[in-house]
Amino acid sequence: MKQFLFMFVFALTTSLVQSQENLPTDYLTKEFHQGRREAFRALMPANSVAVVFSYPERVFSRDIDYNYHANPDMYYLSGYKEPDAILLIFKEAQGTEKYNEVLFVREKNATREMWTGRRLGIEGAKSKLEFTTVYNGKDFNAFAIDFSKFDKVIYDEFPTDAKESDHPDNLYVLLKSFKSKAGITKANEDSTNLFSKITSSLREIKTPEELVLMRKTVKLSCIAHNEVMKAVGPDMSENEVDGIHAYIHKHYGAEAEGYGPIVGAGANGCILHYWENNATKIDNQLLLMDVGSEYHGYSADVTRTIPANGKFTEEQKAIYQIVYDAQEAVFKICKEGTPLVALNETAKDVIAKGLIKLGIITDPKDVRLYYPHSCSHFLGLDVHDKGTYNGPQTLIKENMILTVEPGIYIPANSKCDKKWWNIGVRIEDDILMLKDSYENLSADSPRKWQDIEALAKQKSTFNDMKFPKI
User: Fold this and answer.
1) pLDDT tens digits, one per residue of 260-289
2) Active-site residue, 426 included
3) Is 405 known to be catalytic?
4) What is its EC number (predicted)?
């Protein structure tokens, strides 16, 4: 009987961890990741090795973890999306086998996979990710590598929240082993800066494969914004609006949102990173929605500001038009060769003149009171993606994706007429920079106040949804 039970459990666990079927077919290919490693290697100095660590699993509450999110750099360079992993990239081929990269992965374990999901393991990393030299993480400590022979060891900042463990393939143990092997007590600034410089120079320019995913994640985010414009009403809650976005993202295959959704009504829209989304009624106020999906690792970042009742007041319209005009002015200089700082300077100038005209400020320097953030950031695998920020020396390059997001926020008790209080407006679009122009990836969602009011008159599928009262 015991033998029968053992065989039954073994058969059950084995069947449960067979290869998953019905997966999306538009993930980045192993050839893409392989090409990114080659591009990284080309930027490494002679006689160097780069070390990339996975992100740790992170606690949501007590003994429950958040859904795991891969380190974008690890994913970019390998395609590997599991925790407890190390990737080594060598500038020159190593050993008699002439390998130039090694991947250490989580060991296959049928019992654990039954509880926490499938693992690629060594064979999966070889067949699906096209690595030729792969080991289990527990083998890293015994792996014969002398880091002292390299002129440069390149790595990112160490994850500080890896859970302490004595399991041989746990990230905490892998980090400890690396530090011991490399003779490192704390991260070396020169090494981490070089890692950041290389990855930023690569990730700031999007490849054709990445652009396919970026266009999709932005497009489906626009669909969600548009649906909310049709569905929203004064009696709706911020959380319900958040849920409409999330449902549409999931409907189109997005795994998550690229950041905590910001859905702020009235005064809440004047808080730049308002994440509570817990007002039970939007009422007849402006609703600022900064929400973007994450599709196969790539994040959109789209913001629209709309009237909950479908009609802008004259004051709301006046502030909205200034932000729109600022965005239009920035678009005119979106192209290769423009200094990155010029985008914000242009937006700031338009907003300052607009606020002076309305009597909200008298000195252009006071624009910072109501427009406190910058206009643009890189977008891609992270919502605030890696890219080069070197002040006036940073020039826009073709195939960068940058946000253009001017805004005006006038909280209560501001030193202006009360009629402007609690008006918060931001319009944010995702812009692909071209040689002589730009492409607005989020153009599918209306920006003009007239077009928003027109869309608000249309009926939404969500208007007919009925649920039991509780």
Assistant:
1) 999 999 999 999 999 999 999 999 999 999
2) yes
3) yes
4) 3.4.11.9
Tokens for 316?
């709301």
Residue 163 tokens read as 């859970």
Give the full edge-to-edge strand order of the sheet including 134-136: 134-136, 99-105, 86-94, 48-53, 152-155
pTM: 0.95
Q: What is the pLDDT of residues 334-355, one digit of tens each?
A: 999 999 999 999 999 999 999 9
Is the CB of residue 428 less than 8 Å from the CB of residue 330? no
Which of 82, 240, 405, 429 is labelled catalytic? 405
Q: Is 301 a catalytic residue?
A: yes
* Residue 101 known to be catalytic: no
Active-site option among 65, 349, 384, 398: 384
Reduce the DSSP state of residue 13 to 3 states and report it: helix
Catalytic annotation present for 373 = yes
Provide the 8-state DSSP code for 90: E
Helix (H) or strand (E) segment spanning residue 208:
helix 208-231
* Known catalytic residue at 384: yes
* C-beta contacts of 134-137 below 8 A and 24+ residues apart: 134/102, 134/103, 134/104, 134/105, 135/102, 135/103, 135/104, 135/105, 136/104, 136/105, 136/106, 136/107, 136/169, 137/84, 137/85, 137/86, 137/104, 137/105, 137/106, 137/107, 137/168, 137/169, 137/170, 137/174
- 439 carries an active-site annotation: no
Active-site hit among 301, 385, 429, 430: 301
Task: Specify the residue for token string 């859904």.
Answer: 67
Q: Is 298 tagged catalytic?
A: no
Catalytic residue flag (residue 33):
no
